[in-house]
Amino acid sequence: MAWAQAAFLQCADAQAIAYGSRRNEAGRCQMLFKQRITVPPFQILKEEPLAIDPRRAEVLALVRRLTLNET
Questions:
Q1: Fewest CB within a 10 Å sphere: which of 19, 37, 39, 48?
Q2: CA nearest 42: which of 55, 58, 27, 30?
Q3: Taken in order 6, 10, 15, 21, is the CA torsion positive or negative?
């Protein structure tokens, strides 16, 4: 992504960028610059496979709502 690369190169203190989602007007996306984050910003609380129900059904519902190709 050109915006991320530009922010990374031009803003030495930037740890991330945020931008609007193309598929969901109310949604926001974030891209973190791993090299600049000294402490992990997230902690994994639980791991769940997305290919097995009930998460699979939730993912497919999101795919359909965003009108993405399901293949």
A1: 39
A2: 30
A3: negative
- Identify the CA nearest to 66 among candidates 38, 34, 27: 27
At 10, is the secondary structure helix, strand, or coil? helix
pLDDT digits (tens, 9 = 90+) for 42-54: 788 999 999 999 9
Q: Which two tokens stand for residue 19?
A: 């931008």
Count of CB atoms situated within 10 Å of the CB of 56 = 12
Cβ atoms within 10 Å of 4's Cβ, excluding its own: 15
Considering just the CA atoms, what is the radius of gyration of the chain in Å? Answer: 16
| pTM of the predicted protein model | 0.53
